[in-house]
Amino acid sequence: MTDSIEKRTFETILAAVREVEKDAPGSAEALFMAVMLGDSALPYDFALSMEGTPHNPSLINPAAAFFATTAIIDPLVTRNLIKTDVDSQIFSLYRNVREAMLASMETKQKIEWAGRAMYGLNLVLPDAEPQNWPTVEWLMPHVLACRDLITELDVNTPAGNRVLHQAGFSLYHQRRHQEAAELLDIALTVDVALKGKQHPDIAADLEGLGTVLWAGEDYPKAEAAFATCLELQKEIFTEDNLVTAPILNSLAVIRQALGKFNESEQTFKECLRVLTASHGEGHPAIASCLNNMALLYEAMNRPKEALRLAQRSLEINRTHFGDAHPDVAADLNTVALLHESLGNSKAAEQNFRDSLAIREQVFGKEHPETAHALCNLALLLDTMGQIAEAIPFYEQGLTAYETSLGPNHPLMESALDNYILLLERTGTRPANDDLRKLTEAKLRQIVERAK
Questions:
Q1: How do the domains of the chain map onto residue ranges?
Q2: pLDDT of 164-176, one tens digit each?
Q3: 131 sits in which H/E element
Q4: What CA–CA distances, in Å, run from 398 to 387, 422, 428?
Q5: Distance in angstroms (rounded) separating the CA atoms of residues 451 and 449
Q6: Whole-angstrom Cα distance, residue 186 to residue 404?
Q7: What is the per-residue pLDDT for 437?
């Protein structure tokens, strides 16, 4: 039976399609929509989501949904146009059916059905939340087909725009930044085609794209996206509108990463001016900008100015949030680092300890933020020659990293390197088997790289 299905001529297949169009128009619609997407399975819900028809099971009761599914799916199954997995509630097209139907369609038909297919895919694609990734990943062949339809047939629809946006940010949550940026860039072109260049949604698209490029460390493209976003915001919003502040802050941080220190400083100052004009002097958003600017001044070898800004950020956040808050802990960490760079070891130690205490209270002992605080304090104590105190803080920090992130996470790298150097200097052995395995694995990597 399978052989005969696979050996059918295009004429035989198209005759079956014409029968479905005549006898079951809803089934034919689902078939044509599916043809335009990827060579992969689709959920039954896709077949029940035709534009202009109330077939979506979410709109009707379960019993009616069963009969609606049967009415749509059965005419396609009986004519051997699709194969189904009833238990999984999915269907897929026979490959020769897809080939025959695509070969028979003119460009105008493909454009029409492409738009309808995007509509159906949009209805079954969940929002870009990490917990939805398994479903998004399963539907990704169809997302990529949607991308190709947009670029090859110039099909620009709101549904296609949402598909690429949600899939793009789903990839972003999976740290697949380059793939995410590709989809979001195409989604931006769709939005521009639909709404024109001067629309608030375009500014939001540019901000999202810039954020993904930044996360992927593609700083030149991220800078271009944020700079374009800022220009657009200034055109469509009121002067010194608060909406520009987050973009200014991001743009300044990226320019620092690119080594454009003077441009970064001017952008931070512009951000502070906008924030102060809207909020006054003591808002947490100002504290965030001050803290970032402090890190810039540290990079510019201006530690005293950096410390002044970091301390002001700490003051604002303490006043606004109280002592036990993650932003206060972050400020204390920055202040500690700056005291250390100025040679104020005791002040640095106290601030590191205060930051650690808050993170343990807020996040618990096995959180990456707590691990970071433990390792920072350990490194300082090591530098100060307080080896006996440094070792247990290193070990607690590395254990927390391994527990929360796994043994091969990049955040562990520098802490583990410093710990190994300390062990080599002192002849000390790791405190437990897990740490011993970690250090041995790291040393093997070093030996392999040296070969």
A1: 1-105, 380-451
A2: 999 999 999 999 9
A3: none
A4: 16, 14, 16
A5: 6
A6: 35
A7: 64
